[in-house]
Amino acid sequence: MELRHLRYFVSVAEEGHFGRAARRLHMSQPPLSQQIRRLEEEVGAPLLSRSPNGVALTPAGRALLPEARLALAQADRALAAARRGARHDGDHFELGFVSSASYLLPRLLPAVRALSPGLSLAVREGSTTQQVELLRSGALAAALLRSPIVGSGLVTRTVTREPLIVALPATHTLAEHRELTLIDLADEPFVLFERDLGHALFDQITSACRTAGYVPDVVHTSSAMATIVHLVASGIGVSIVPASVAQTAAGVVFRSAGDLRAHVALDLTWREDSSDDAAIATVLQAARQSLDWAIAA
C-alpha cells in the first residue's frame, strides 16, 4: 500500500465525488478511479459505493478512513520536520505566492534582503489550493495568499489590503471616464480569476456586482493575473483587479469605481508549528513595511 493511494482515497472520501477529488488532486478522473480500484484490490474489499450522484463509504471504507488520515498526517509531519531542518541548516526560505500577489514581489523581496541579507529566499507561484497543500507538507515555509484560508494547523496574518479597481481595454468608450460606477459594467463581458483556484477574489468581485444590481457575465477565467490583463487588452472583456496590477498594462487603462469600496486582503500564511521560525518573523515584518495600501489588521 502506497501513501499516494491513501491520499487519493481520503480525497475521494472527503469530496464524495471522483470529479471533485480529481480537481483537488490536480489530476484527471480516469487515473484516479484506477488507483482507487488498485487500493480496493489490495484491501480485498470495496471501499466506496459508486452511484451517478457520487460515492459513499462502505464499511471497509469507514474503517480505513481515520487510519488513512492518521498515516498521512504522520508522513506529512515527518517530511515537514526534515524540510524545516534543511531550511534552517542553509538559511533557506521557500515562499509561495498566488499570481495576484506577483506584482507586489518587487517591493517585498528587496525589503526581506535588507532585513536579513544572509537569508536565501526562493519563491514559488501556485494556486491557493496548491500553496496550502505545499504548506501542510512542509515544502513551503510560508505563502502569500488571498484570504480567507480555511483549515486548522495554519497561522494567517494580513500584511496588506488593496483597493479593487476596474481594468478596461484602452479603446473602450468607458476609458474616457476618470471614474466609473459598477452599474456602468452591467452589460460588459467579464474576465476573472478562476474560482476553483482561489475563491476569495472571485467571490468578492461577483458579490460587489450583485450588490450593484446585476450578476456579471463571466466569459473567460484564467489562473494567472497577467493573462487576465492581456485578455482585457485584447478586448475580450473587462475585469476588476487588485490595485497593484495597474503597474504594468500596455493596452489597458485602470479606473476606480465610486461604489466599489471593497479592499482585498493579502495574508502571509504558515504552519502553526513553525511560528517560532525567525525567518517567518522577518518576512512578516518586511511585508508589512514594504507593501502599500496597508491597513491595520
From TrEMBL:
It comes from the Bacteria. It comes from Conexibacter stalactiti. CDD domains: PBP2_LTTR_aromatics_like (cd08414). The keyword Ribonucleoprotein does not apply. Residues 1-58 form the HTH lysR-type domain. This is LysR substrate-binding domain-containing protein. Belongs to the LysR transcriptional regulatory family. InterPro entries: LysR_HTH_N, LysR_subst-bd, WH-like_DNA-bd_sf, WH_DNA-bd_sf. Keywords: DNA-binding, Transcription, Transcription regulation. Gene3D superfamilies: Periplasmic binding protein-like II, Winged helix-like DNA-binding domain superfamily/Winged helix DNA-binding domain. Pfam families: HTH_1, LysR_substrate.
